[in-house]
Amino acid sequence: MVKRALAIILILITGYWLANALAQVPFGADKMLVGKYYLENVKDQTGAVNAVTAVVVNYRGFDTLGEVTVLFIAATGVAALLWRKKRERTAKSEGSVVLQTGSRLLLPFIMLFGAYIFIHGHLTPGGGFPGGATIATAFLMLYLAFREYEIPHRVFEPLEGLAGIGYVTVGLIGLAIGGYFLFDWIWQTWQLGHDNIGRLFSAGFIPIIYTLIGLKVGTELTGIVDNMVKEPKEGGQ
Amino acid sequence: MISAYYFGAISLILIGLYATLTKRNLLKILVGLSIMETGVNLLLISVGYVSGRTAPILTEGATPQTAVDPIPQALVLTAIVIGVATTALALTVAINLYEKYKTLDIEKIRGLRG
To answer: pTM for this one?
Structure first.
């Protein structure tokens, strides 16, 4: 009871403090400083229509590389913490008929939708991270429906590594051509797609990087799912 | 008086904080952390909102003068991904704790430790 009372007092203090601080930030007012610069120059400098994607992949591309690295380290940590010599699926029964038929039917469409989200990241809301997560849900569904199902590890693990290497390679080509890491060489040096803004073939390296990120996030999240559904064999620690 | 959007976001943060402080089940603590994270993301997004403007996607009909701030949205995109990563790692630690102690009650785990 004392613990609960203390928690409530702490919450009241924190809430009062947060509310006081935010009372001085007017809601809905135009507070943009650097955001204005991005919005005004995004089409000329990056070719992307979606300003959020341009900020994430182009202006702050190095930050996103770090983000992908954090996700990779987390996936590796999950695999390392759950590592046992012998692990297997321990589901007692198969998924129901509805789940099995539905997952067979929906699987290609979910994959297609995920690919659509990450390929069109520079035009519509979305991008590599939500697209990859959508693809991972397709494999999660397969794991739920079929007791014996297992992802093809020989395809997934090299694909994950190649996608990461591809991201760094795109950045290094930019370093060689333009003088700094993650320079947008397709848009600024080759000037591809300059009369195509707002269509698929524009925005320089953003679709390429987002495709790589989508593949990487999809395979990584699927790997996390795969690690979590398996349990250690009895007595085989 | 603060805006209703800030109020909602702060309430989510505080609900998450309460769950994290008072619950004894490890999974409920992780749920509390996730709620807190959602609140923080909502707060960032609502700070970047400008009244009467649309999403920062500059296709036909949207100009730089009619779009909201893209930077908080880009930062929240990062924060969501990091949140997924940390949640996955925390759940893995919870799985390991359960395998070792056969319970998720943090008080009992503390008692069993020595």
So the answer is: 0.85
